[in-house]
Structure formats: structure tokens, C-alpha cells
Q: What sequence folds into this?
């Protein structure tokens, strides 16, 4: 997958983007941070052997992806890392909508916490964090990858 | 359609199991108990139990590992919110055993030599508490993809997946504190999950795999640190893939076999003999059959590299 170690200033930039978009601080310096060509961010324990970063198929946890306009699309795991401390851009979904989100379908939040339209929002149901989606005129576009989708029903909103 | 063992299989295991053979045969008509392992990197056992019981699941703790449950539910285990979130991993309860014997610790350097699709790899990550360094290897691109997916879902930051033939593992120039060789095998112990494995089973296949397993053991012995631990396991019941490879590891590769116990699991020590061959070191290994725990069958042994 070919990842490259991020420079300290890049790591600080990600921390600032997280704070700007989700209203919380994250200390990424406890990890070694890597990027791939798609601008995906990977968090690796400091004990990993950097020499393997060029040839590995998996090298640390995918936290999210940097997007234009200083935005960040979080993976499920990324949302779980920062979710509890986040204060902005959080969409709370009911049970029906959370299943739509997991199926990769558009869903609707019953509560939006400090959300900006056309930004990525953390998806929350009950006390759990499911990833992020793009908020567009009150609808949330699911970012769940095909492999992770759970097909349970095909109800339309 | 009546399900039967292939003729060669029946003959072999009648000889090995004698009076107990009908118990093995009866396993053709039952399924293993459904099992989930709690991902303690993301959620506590108590919290997950509470969530799943709220959904009407009946959970029974696996007697050989406290953070795994046998599950009774009508729900599809792979279609729940908790599964999506990576709060649990679905696996056969037998495959917990090799990792429990390996006993991974945080800050160790560990190799999972034949890792995909990742049930044991993700368990190792969990027991290492996401600290230290784990290399997981496999050769097939599709299986590598599944392995990487499962590591992401478990939340692994201390793992690296390398697509390579483990017989070339010394090329990496890394030595390990512990190695798990859960070797590619005939899978004869897994017919309880899917009797299709029996379609591919033959003594010829078993012998071919036995040779490959020896090569894997040899390659891994070279990258294990002195006094390091190697756990060798298969989900095969065939002595050629098990006790014979243990003898090879001790006599030809110079490993020191070690005793171990797995509390709460019903098992027996390895075979003392098979046909005309006597096994000198089988008392250092365990094997269990599908009828003993209503899981897949397994063989496990623990070896230490001389200091």
C-alpha cells in the first residue's frame, strides 16, 4: 500500500483540522503517522519497523482521509478514537437510520450537534460511533466501504 | 443426502480412535457452537454482554477463555450494529487455543506466519494490548485483503501485514520473541463446520501438506530468537500433519518441547503411536476432537528454541 511517514508539521496540521472540524483535541504524537497517495492517514504504534512501510499490505490503523477545504473524513475507527471528545459536526441517528447508514444508504439524523452543511459529520447512535458521512441538506451520505456494509433491509425513508 | 466420511478417512480414524470413532462420526450431523470473541480493545466484556442480552441473545462464557461467549440467537451474528462496530469477532472457539498457548504479551515482537483471514492475528493484537510489534504473513492476495480488513476493524495499530511466502521470512532480517505457525492443513478437524473439506481430503494431500508444514517450521526456526517460543497448530486430526511434525521439530530442528495446560478445555495428549511409528514427544502436545467441546478439532504444541 506504500505509506510515507508524515512530518511533524503535517501531524500538527491534522491535529488542527480535527480540532477545527470536530471541536476536540487529539494527540497524534503518541503514534507514528503515515500517509498514502490517496491522502489517507494511518496511525501506527511507535514500535513498528518503518522499513516495512513500503512493502506492507497493512501498516497501522486507517484513521481517516484528508479532503479539500481542510476537512477530514473519518473511518469507523477514527470516529471511535475521537468521538467521545467531539463537540462539533455530530449527527445522532435513530435505529432505523443507523441501519441505513451501515447499508451505505442515505440517512437522516434526528439530532444534529453543531453541524455544518456540506461537511463530514460523526455518526452516533446510542453511545456508539459508526464513522462519518457527508451532511448535505439534512441528509447524510454514507461513507461506509462496500466490504463493511451490512445489508439488513432496503427500506426507503 | 446421506453424509459419510471418505473411505480412507474412515479407516484411518477408526484405527486412531477405536471405540470412540462413532462419536466422531456423529459430528457429521451437528454444528459447532456459535462463538464470538469480545474485542477488548474497543469494549469491555460486561458492556458488550449487556448490549447483546438486551437484543435477546443467550450468552455462555467459553470455559477456556473468559472474553469469549458461546451464543444462542436467531439473529445473523454478522449483521448487527455491534459486529459492524468491531466490538466482537466471530470465530470457532477452538481457534482461541493456539493463541492462548502462545500467550502474547505487550511489547513483544511476534510473527503470525500463516495469518489470514485473521481470527488468531486479531486475538494476538488484543492480548498484546496493541503494543509491541506483530507481523502477519500470508501468500494469497484475497486472503491478505480479508486479513487487513479484520485488523482495521479490530483497531490494530501495532500490526503489519506482509504478503510473502513464509519460507522466505529470513529475508526481512527481523527476529522474533514468539511465532505462531498455524499451518495450512487438510482441515480434517473442521468437517463439523463444513463437511466439504472432506471432498479434498486424501492421504496424498495430507502427506504433501506435511512436507510444506516442515518447511514452514524450518524457516520459522531461523528467525526465532534464542529461548523464543514457537506454537505449532493445525485444524487437522491427521498425525502426519501433527505428531510427526512435532518429532521433526525436536529431532531435526533442535526445538525443546514444553508442557502446557489449557484450563476449561477438554483435550487429550497427542497420539503415542500411529501404525508402526512411535512418537517420543507427543506428551508435549494436545489434540482435541469435534466431539469433545462441540468445536472444530485441533492439534497444538509449544516449542522453545535452544538458548
A:
Amino acid at each position: 500500500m506504500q505509506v510515507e511517514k508524515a512530518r511533524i508539521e503535517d501531524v500538527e496540521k491534522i491535529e488542527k483540522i480535527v480540532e477545527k472540524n470536530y471541536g476536540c483535541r487529539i494527540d497524534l504524537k503518541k503514534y507514528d503517522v503515515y500517509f498514502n497517495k490517496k491522502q489517507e492517514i494511518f496511525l501506527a504504534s511507535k514500535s513498528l519497523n518503518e522499513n516495512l512501510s513500503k512493502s506492507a499490505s497493512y501498516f497501522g490503523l486507517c484513521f481517516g482521509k484528508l479532503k479539500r477545504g481542510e476537512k477530514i473524513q473519518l473511518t469507523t475507527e477514527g470516529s471511535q478514537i475521537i468521538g467521545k471528545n467531539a463537540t462539533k459536526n455530530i449527527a445522532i441517528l435513530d435505529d432505523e437510520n443507523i441501519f441505513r447508514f451501515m447499508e451505505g444508504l442515505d440517512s437522516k439524523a434526528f439530532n444534529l450537534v453543531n453541524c455544518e452543511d456540506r461537511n463530514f459529520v460523526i455518526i452516533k447512535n446510542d453511545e456508539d460511533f459508526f464513522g462519518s458521512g457527508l451532511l448535505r441538506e439534512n441528509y447524510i451520505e454514507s461513507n461506509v466501504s462496500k466490504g463493511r456494509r451490512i445489508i439488513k433491509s432496503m427500506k426507503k425513508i | 443426502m446421506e453424509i459419510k466420511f471418505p473411505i480412507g478417512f474412515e479407516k484411518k480414524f477408526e484405527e486412531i480412535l477405536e471405540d470412540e470413532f462413532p462419536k466422531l462420526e456423529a459430528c457429521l450431523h451437528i454444528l459447532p457452537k456459535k462463538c464470538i470473541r469480545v474485542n477488548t480493545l474497543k469494549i469491555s466484556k460486561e458492556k458488550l454482554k449487556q448490549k447483546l442480552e438486551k437484543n435477546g441473545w443467550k450468552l455462555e462464557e467459553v470455559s477456556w477463555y473468559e472474553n469469549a461467549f458461546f451464543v444462542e440467537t436467531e439473529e445473523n451474528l454478522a449483521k448487527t450494529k455491534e459486529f459492524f462496530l468491531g466490538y466482537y469477532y466471530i470465530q470457532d472457539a477452538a481457534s482461541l487455543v493456539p493463541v492462548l498457548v502462545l500467550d502474547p504479551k505487550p511489547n513483544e515482537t511476534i510473527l503470525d506466519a500463516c495469518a489470514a483471514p485473521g481470527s488468531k492475528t486479531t486475538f494476538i493484537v488484543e492480548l498484546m494490548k496493541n503494543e509491541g510489534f506483530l507481523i502477519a504473513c500470508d501468500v494469497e492476495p484475497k486472503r491478505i485483503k480479508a486479513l487487513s480488513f479484520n485488523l482495521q476493524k479490530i483497531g490494530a495499530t501495532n500490526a503489519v501485514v506482509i504478503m510473502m511466502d513464509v519460507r522466505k521470512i529470513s529475508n526481512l532480517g527481523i527476529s522474533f520473541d514468539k511465532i505462531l505457525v498455524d499451518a495450512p492443513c487438510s482441515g480434517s478437524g473442521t468437517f463439523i463446520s463444513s463437511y466439504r473439506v472432506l471432498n479434498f481430503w486424501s492421504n496424498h494431500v495430507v502427506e504433501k501438506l506435511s512436507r510444506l508444514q516442515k518447511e514452514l517450521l524450518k524457516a520459522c526456526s531461523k528467525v526465532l530468537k534464542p529461548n523464543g517460543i514457537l506454537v505449532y497448530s493445525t485444524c487437522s486430526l491427521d498425525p502426519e500433519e501433527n505428531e510427526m511434525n512435532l518429532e521433526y521439530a525436536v529431532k531435526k530442528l533442535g526445538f525443546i518441547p514444553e508442557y502446557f495446560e489449557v484450563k476449561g478445555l477438554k483435550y487429550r495428549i497427542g497420539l503415542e503411536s500411529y501404525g508402526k511409528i512411535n512418537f517420543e514427544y507427543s506428551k508435549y502436545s494436545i489434540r482435541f476432537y469435534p466431539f469433545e467441546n462441540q468445536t472444530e478439532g485441533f492439534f497444538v504444541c509449544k516449542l522453545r528454541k535452544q538458548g
Summary: Residues 203-223 of chain B form the longest helix (21 residues). The first strand of chain B starts at residue 35 and ends at 38.
